[in-house]
Amino acid sequence: MPIKETLKRSDRIKELSILLLSSRIHPRPRIWTRLFVNPFFHKRGRGSRVCFKARLDVFPWRSFVLGKGAIVEDWAVINNGGGDVIIGEKTRIGIGSVVVGPVTIGNRTSLGPHVHIAGFNHTFDDGNRDWNEQGLTLRPIEIGDECLIGANSCVCGGVKIGNRVQVGAGSVVTKDLPDCCVAVGNPAKVIKLFNAETGKWERV
Questions:
Q1: Torsions phi, psi of 70, nearest 5?
Q2: Which of 132, 190, 192, 199 sits in a 20 to 30 Å window from 53, CA-based?
Q3: In Å, what is the CA distance from 107 to each residue of 86, 87, 171, 183?
Q4: Residues β-bridged to residue 184
Q5: Tell me, what's the pLDDT at 4?
């Protein structure tokens, strides 16, 4: 059985592995994990680049894929602790943006500065218990090809964004967005759709 599958299926082995690969106080990969373990589990496409000041909190028991020619800019944070993070070819993760899996981003998509994308919510079903002890509710996010997510936007868990979508700066995306649209606001609403027959953008 592959090591990754063993880690997923055995809680005891996973707990021991976490202690070896990550600090319990600061849940991020130890330096030897980043340098000597992750390269055997994660895929980095040719010409992809992670800037020096970016932070990759990626662990070997979850997938992390950075497509060919993709870039993660300075002060951005990528975290696959909760789920896989798949970033397509020639996609740009903007300065200071945060991507927490499970998240899939298509090809040639760009995140502006300080965009927040998280494919989970903290579970808080029991008001009598500390939320730290209640785990996570995973809600995968999918973002299509050739999208532009404006600066300071937030994409909430469970959202699916189509291809060639533009999200205005400062928007909060709480619901799915169709292909070829412009969406703005909090919560984000579609204000324009592209009509392929006329070749023009039409207001909604």
A1: -75, 160
A2: 132
A3: 10, 8, 22, 20
A4: 189
A5: 55
> CA–CA distance from 192 to each of 97, 133, 163, 182, 203 (Å)?
26, 43, 14, 5, 4
N-term to C-term CA, the chain: 52
pLDDT recorded at residue 38: 63
Q: What contacts 24+ positions apart, CB below 8 Å, involve 159-163?
A: 163/106
Tell me which residues are annotated as active site.
Answer: 122
Tell me the three state secondary structure of residue 7.
helix
Question: DSSP letters of 137-190?
Answer: EE--EEE-TT-EE-TT-EE-TT-EE-SS-EE-TT-EE-S-B-SSEEEETTTTEE
Residue 197 CA to residue 204 CA, distance in Å, equals 16
Residues facing residue 166 across a β-bridge:
148, 182
In angstroms, the Cα distances linking 84 to 43, 66, 195 are: 12, 11, 34
Q: Give residue 142's Cα distance to chain centre.
A: 9
Among 75, 69, 74, 114, CA closest to 87:
69
Q: Give the predicted TM-score (pTM) of the model.
A: 0.83
Parts of the chain with a pLDDT under 50: 1, 32
Can you tell me the distance from the alpha carbon of 35 to that of 50, in angstroms, rounded to the nearest whole number?
A: 14
